[in-house]
Amino acid sequence: MTIGLDDMLELLASLGNAALHMLTQPFYYIALLFIILYCRRQTLLERRLIHVKLHSWGREVWRAIGTGLAAGVLVSLAAMLLGVSASGPAVVCIWAVSLILLLLRVRYFCFAYSIGLLGVVQAVLSFFPAFRPGGLGGEAVTAVREMDIPALLALAAVLLVVEALLVRWQGPRLATPLFLEGKRGRVVGGYRVEAFWPLPLFLLIPAGAGTGALPWPTLLGGGLGLVSLPVVIGFSQLTTGMLPRRKSARASGRLLLCGAVLLGLALLAARYSPLTLLAALAALLLHEGLVWYGALEERRSSPFFVHPPHGLKVLAVLPGSPAQELGILPGEILLKVNGEALTGKAQQLHEALRKSPAFCKLEVQNAAGESKYLQRAIYDGDHHLLGVILAPQPDEDTTAPEQPAGIAGIVLMKTGARRRQPGDAAVPPRRETAASQETAASEEAAPALPAPGAPGPLPGPSRAKSAKG
To answer: Which H helix or E strand runs over 326?
Structure first.
């Protein structure tokens, strides 16, 4: 079936009205405010733990908005082709449930949880057809009864697929390095792979009296007209046993599988309504199952970001730093610096670099267990540890919580990081760590904290060609 000029003009007019409605309603702005507060808090946590910031909160906000806009266009097109529809009151109900879930736990803010819960509520209301309260409650009950839950679950499945692709694409770059309290009170390094994206969506209006027929065939119905529905998708997992790239790849594959299963159940429910409750429960349990299984996987794994007997494990590398230029990667082990073997003490790296203030030679063990030899001139203003963030010492005094922040912590900018008491760790008294040395060196060199990649300068020549050996 071809799309006529009249149909196209009606769709464009409806799109303009829906866009205007989105701009005049608070829902998209709430999503943006949440993203801003979340990114700002992540930067504060990085400064608290490693004394520098790996991510710029302003840049991450724009990344989330830009990615969300692009993803929103693609998901909206897919939803229109499938025939996903929603009414104005349904949009309000979805957001009311989303905000309530947000108060319970931040990851519940995602669309799949809201639609899954509304699907369960609709199933319960079907057993009480005479229940029709008056006032605002009655309007909400009517809106829930009239929701096309299978179609909205199909949309949730599409969003899971998009989330999987974004986790794989952006997850490793957005991961936040953490110092965590591990087994037997020893501190270990880890990452939180966590991100959120706001998507402005445009869905079809429900088919009915006074609604034009769609000029293309759909699986789930829908009428000629559009309504706006801003949504938030996101993912959060903690890892101490593997690199963020590997964790993101695993999570992405599992999200794709969950999205495919949920889409199949939603399409079956659209044909056979008794399956709607099963599909709604799947929307809730599949996402939670991923979080639970990821946590179980971590509990069974050994800590990866700990120092070996010989060498220093790299937790992270500052963007634009000498270490990044040399090709040093998270998870690699610094074996020797300027001919001096490193034995797990963070202060050795700083001392070894100071022995040759104009040039450095490094032996680094990569993930395959092979050694690579690097060399580079040291310039004025270079980071005094070359931009390497080392795994924490076992007796590091500041750690982050394993649980992700709640909405109160995000709004109030509480990082959750705490200073450990001497009795918390069954290890010798704390040695001076690389992070504390970095802070001290930075304070001696300049009155303010320098930008990432250039705190704690080492003395050296003004500029020369760097080289890799």
So the answer is: helix 322-326
By the 8 A CB rule, do 326 and 362 touch? yes
The pLDDT score that the predictor gives to residue 444 is 40
In a domain, 415, yes or no: no
pTM summary value: 0.86
293, 330: one domain? no
The mean predicted confidence, pLDDT, of the chain is: 86
Asked whether residue 452 carries a pLDDT value surpassing 50, the answer given is no
- The CA distance from 234 to 35, in Å, is 11
Task: Tell which residue, 334, 344, 259, 274, has the closest CA to residue 309.
Answer: 344
Pairing mode, if any, of strands 359-365 and 333-337? antiparallel
Examine residue 4 and state whether it is found in any structural domain, yes or no: no
Same domain, yes or no, for 291 and 346? no
Shared domain for 258 and 210, answered yes or no, is yes
Most confident of 110-114, 183-187, 210-214, 395-399: 110-114
> 48 and 187, same structural domain?
yes
In a shared domain, residues 209 and 346: no
Identify whether residues 22 and 106 lie together within a single domain: yes
φ, ψ (nearest 5 deg) of residue 101:
-65, -35
- Whichever domain contains 341, its CATH number is 2.30.42.10
DSSP assigned state of 224:
E
Q: What is the pLDDT of residues 249-267, one digit of tens each?
A: 999 999 999 999 999 999 9
Q: For residue range 55-106, what is the model confidence (pLDDT) as tens digits?
A: 999 999 999 999 999 999 999 999 999 999 999 999 999 999 999 999 999 9
How many separate domains does the chain show?
A: 2
> Do 327 and 222 belong together in one domain?
no
Confidence label for 441 from pLDDT (cuts 50, 70 and 90): very low
Rounded Cα gap, residues 188 and 193, in angstroms: 16
The range of the structural domain enclosing residue 206 comes to: 16-300
Q: Which two tokens stand for residue 266?
A: 């939603």
- Residue 364 identity: V
Same domain, yes or no, for 383 and 435? yes
Distance of alpha carbon 245 from alpha carbon 251, whole angstroms: 10
Structure tokens at 126: 């079907």
Q: Identify the helix (H) or strand (E) that includes residue 361.
A: strand 359-365
Query: Does the residue 350 lie in any domain?
Result: yes
Instruction: Say what the pLDDT of residue 458 is.
Output: 52
